[in-house]
Amino acid sequence: MNNKLKTQAVEQLFQAILSLKDLDEAYDFFEDVCTINEILSLSQRFEVAKMLREHRTYLDIAEKTGASTATISRVNRSLNYGNDGYDRVFERLGMLEKESEDNK
Fold first, then answer.
1. What does the pLDDT profile of the chain (104 residues) look like in tens digits?
2. Whose CA is closest to 52, among 86, 85, 89?
């Protein structure tokens, strides 16, 4: 874990997120905490990660999400060298095909 990220304020934020009970609460909280563009950027990165795990091409991803190749590359780097956060969530949400699990 990145020590620069691990602060009391960040921990409180993450605890607040974990306390949310449903989608309506998530919408309310994130709309208060973030700008619409910040939420859209986060959701775009999440969609890019999902599409990369589905072995979609950069061109296809850029066309479907509007993400720049720089954003796609950054997300790809996180998928390949990060902390497995995306994959953990994809697995829990059942968002990827079983074959990707077999490739691990």
1. 567 889 999 999 999 999 999 999 999 999 999 999 999 999 999 999 999 999 999 999 999 999 999 999 999 999 999 999 999 999 999 987 654 444 44
2. 86
Q: Would 103 be classed as within a structural domain?
A: no
Residue 44's CATH number: 1.10.1270.10
Q: How many domains does the chain have?
A: 1
pTM: 0.85
Torsion 48-49-51-55 (CA) sign: positive
> CA geometry: angle at 94 spanning 17 and 96, to 5°?
115
